[in-house]
Amino acid sequence: MTVEMFYARIGGDYAGTKARLMTDERIVRFVNKFPTDGSYQLLVDSIAAGNAEEAFRAAHTIKGVAQNLGFTALFTVAEEVTEILRAGSLDVAAKMPTLTEKYKLTIDAINELNA
Q1: Is the pTM of this model over 0.85?
Q2: Could you tell me which of 79, 49, 53 has the C-alpha nearest to residue 64?
């Protein structure tokens, strides 16, 4: 799978990311760091624990990383979750399945990119 195909698969912004990071090698280097970030699990655990402040920080991190790496589909839903949590509400149940789907799609595509 090429880097451009990876971005097409996840609903990402290859052109914008390439403009920022300049080379596919640099993109891959940063994309490969994404699966080691613990923010998604922290988000899930914080929601389960009822900790809106910690859940907000985790969602905000996912949003920022997704935006910087051009993971547009993941960014969009992470932004929605972040804004709900920013207001101090844990009422994100309707958004979490989509966030989880986009997150897992991104992780699976990264694994394919490296296969």
Answers
A1: yes
A2: 79
